[in-house]
Amino acid sequence: MKTLPKLSGCMGMSRRGFLASGCAACLGAAGCASMKGEHKAAKTAEKMRIRTVYSLHAEVQPGPDWPNVGFDFRPPMERINSELASTFPNYEFLPTLATGPEQAQKILEEDAAGKVDGYIVYQMNCWNQVVQTIGSSGKPVLYADFQYAGSGGFLVYNAGFLRNSVPNVGFVASSDMKDHIAAVRCFDVVRKGGSPADFVAATAQARVKSTPGSGRLACKRDSFAVLSPTDCLARMKASRILAVRDQEAGDGGEFMGIPVTRVAFAELNDAWANADKDESRAIADRWEKDAAVIEGVSRETLETSAAMYLGQKAVLNKYGANAITINCLGGFYGGHIHAYPCLGFHELCNEGLIGACECDVPSTATMVTFTAMSQGRPGYISDPVMDTAKGEIIYAHCVASNRPFGPQGPVNPFEILTHSEDRQGASVRSVFPLGYMTTTLELSSDRKEVLFHQGKAVENDPDDRACRTKLGVKPVGDIEKLFTMWDKWGWHRVTFYGDLREPVFALADAAGWKVVEEA
Q: If exposure means fewest CB atoms within 10 Å of the residue's CB, which of 70, 357, 442, 472 is most exposed?
């Protein structure tokens, strides 16, 4: 366990009036608690002791991960500590760092000797497993997402708590500090005699009350033709996915009827090395001309990225494939490939082909299927973030097309920036068009299921943390339900422009699949 020292500095972010807000649901629940006798009155007068646990790698991020290498967590942690202390003078907050379950267990052991009434766990990096151990304490636990930093782990781990009906872990997923304050105020439920389950119920009521509704979801006109289920299934079988995961090559089986071939890093790297230099320079020239912004990316990096695009095309042509997905980080950090494939994926998706990140075959198959169905509309693979302050789900990634309506459709502005996590290479921020209906999907071959939700595109978030492209969408349906599927389906989702509801259900009926409505 590492107790936080007194830190200096301040985020300088707007508090958005959070001190003026309250938690009526929490106070209402607290008022229902029985408060009889002098003993309980004395107990209420005592300060509550709340352990605040920050789950992260280090105070200053040592390597590539969300939000980015070198990120200094000390100012935001100090801001949280200061706001909590000033807002709750009758609470005593005990800030602590933990990197994983061993440190979390030591925290519990040390707290057993003292009086700790509850815990706040902030997920500051994605995959540090701290909250699971803290949650096993039986004490009331508030689980909070530090957005664009810990959001992947937060969504997956929190969905596990929800699926297993863990009775003592409530949560907050908001960009507005006033929502965090309202959730912390719900510890008063326990202070006045309520149970941890009462605390969780109060946090849920506070969260729902503060989440804005979707409002008017009328969208801009977007008419397009789709393939019939029979033709779509035939197109899937005629497709081929190349999966570049490691140095292994050979038959990769099939996914939802789509053949998969494994290709070794070495073959892709050879194709990159042998790419025509003049053609690479010409592509780099075009990117320089077309990009609205190029920042932190050298001319040399543009040319090596263009060569990687040509290498991808060469490998696709060799195998007669229309989709490629690459273990980009493993390949780049391992020295197996020497350029990020992000700009190449961007070009492929603009052409009606498929370029997909992280050797994620299920998401690649999702892109193949629904790009075929929509006759060329590219899928946007993302790491989503939930924000109840805005009532949005934000799809974040460093690769995106800027032709969301298909190869012949209009273009939107795009920027060429470094890959966000490590500030290296070249990636894409696509400034997507707003006001349109989107359909977000993911396929499961084992279960023969299609995960499905829809939303209206409402913003492009320019936040520098995490992945470069961030499309914010107001979901159709229940945003609370959107918190429940991540442990079963993983973090990635694939978003398409257009209302694909009817053709998705028709395809599922024809193929014998089940549609799981996520919202």
A: 70
